[in-house]
Amino acid sequence: MDFARVAGHLSRFAAGRVVATGLALLALMASVDAASAAGCGQSMQPGRHPVGFTVDGIARSGVYFIPSTYDGQKKMPVVFDFHGSNSNPDGQLNRSSWDKVAEKNGFVVVALQGSLSGKTSGTFAWNVPFVPVSQTIIPTGAQGGQDEMAFIQQAVKTVKQELCVDPARVYASGYSGGGRMLSAYICSGHDDFSAAGFVHSLRAGRPVEVEGKWLPDPANCTPGRPVSIMAFAGVKDGQNPFAGGGNAYWQYGFKTAIQRWTQLDGCKGNGETKTVDGVTFSLFGTCQNGARIATYVFANGTHDWPKPAPSTQAVIAAAKDGGSNVAEVVRVSAAKPPFDANVDPATRMWDFFGKTDSTDLIATAAPAKANAAAKPGTSVALDCATEAETQGTSCISSQPINMRRSGQGVQGAL
User: What is the pLDDT of residue 154?
Assistant: First the structure.
């Protein structure tokens, strides 16, 4: 695995890219001290970097992000971000802004790349188990089709060994096809992730038809342990329909998937539900082994990655900047709403991941509610992610880390 080190710090991979797996990796790790073996002891260059892996003789790739606070001494959490079909790791980070959240909160992000070639050059999809290529939204003759389960497992293992991360705080997030891949990985019994988030993508096993009704196949989802889950869905999602149907790999709806996960996690009760400005939040807070299941459903949500309304963001920014006319444009509600409907999935997932052992799971990050003309919810904000994902180009260095990015409106990134 090739990591970018800070100048002046000698890496044990100083000879260039060295990828080690199996016995070769174990032999190499045995030759270094305990701190190095844990991935700690050396600083690293902040920002995004490409990374390579070899799994069963097959070269695989991805992108990882190092926050500026990484010093190689303090173990940090890590979040794996799985891209949708017809996308790529950089495009997914542009969409999700997980690296922006990581820079603010101090954790590592790793975005892996699926093995199937997508519709356009530079885009990819995941070879999700039990989903023939003919049933997907990518070309029937797509090249690739590697063992994604082995890839993810090896990547998690390598990141734990090579970076200074906390093995007890390894999380994952998936969008669309990436969330279906993540669902399959957890369903297969792998317990690498302490918690997981899903945007328009949660599955609980492959769909099977039972007496005319589509349900998750019980034998196809046997998690290694109860896992905390946060899932997002749009009622008007045309790609992965909220009520079910759609492509052959989808069929059963979001509520059915959640119901099945409450069974798998051994949750009690029907969940607490609250609705604000067309966004419904639900929480199953009492599940086995401390697991929790939280959901956000957008009444007007489509398959786009949800974003806070730009008008609301502008008002909040003005309030923070101390604008002279803030009092005229900001209306602070006399009664505190049950939760903040300006949902940013990555930020909300990070709050959830860090509070899986507490009762405070509903973030209220916005300092003020906008006026009646600024309605929270989903919105489209186009940027370089559009061109990057449809043409296979990259905008890694064209946007500073503090800029909000969105992949909404990108066609085919499903």
Answer: 96
User: Domain total for the chain?
Assistant: 1
Per the structure block, which two tokens stand in for 370? 């906008």
Q: Does residue 383 belong to any structural domain of this protein?
A: yes
Residue in this structure with the two tokens 């209220």, named with its chain if needed: 364
Distances 56 to 22, 52, 193, 373 between C-alpha atoms, Å:
9, 13, 23, 56
Strands (E), 206-292: 207-210, 213-216, 228-234, 244-245, 251-252, 272-276, 279-284
Quote the pLDDT of residue 294.
97
Residue 156 lies in a domain: yes
CATH label of the domain that carries residue 270: 3.40.50.1820
Residues in the chain: 414
Answer yes or no: is pLDDT of 15 > 70: no
Q: Which one has a higher pLDDT value, 172 or 328?
A: 172
Higher pLDDT, 106 or 18: 106
Answer whether residue 29 is part of any domain: yes
> H helices within 223-364, ranges in order?
254-264, 310-321, 326-329, 345-354
**Per-residue pLDDT at 64:** 98
Neighbours of 346 (CB within 10 A): 23
| pLDDT, average across residues 296-306 | 95
From CA 113, how far away is CA 110, in angstroms rounded? 10
Q: Which residue has the tokens 């089709």?
A: 145
Beta pairing partners, 293: 229, 284
Residue 357, token pair as written in the block: 């052992």
In this structure, are residues 60 and 53 in contact, taking their beta carbons and an 8 Å threshold? Answer: yes
Range of the domain at 236: 22-391
pLDDT at 219 over 90: yes
Threshold 0.70, pTM exceeds = yes
The dihedral region occupied by 94, where left means phi > 0, alpha psi between -120 and 50, and beta the remainder, is alpha
In a domain, 401, yes or no: no
Q: Looking at residue 218, what is its pLDDT?
A: 96
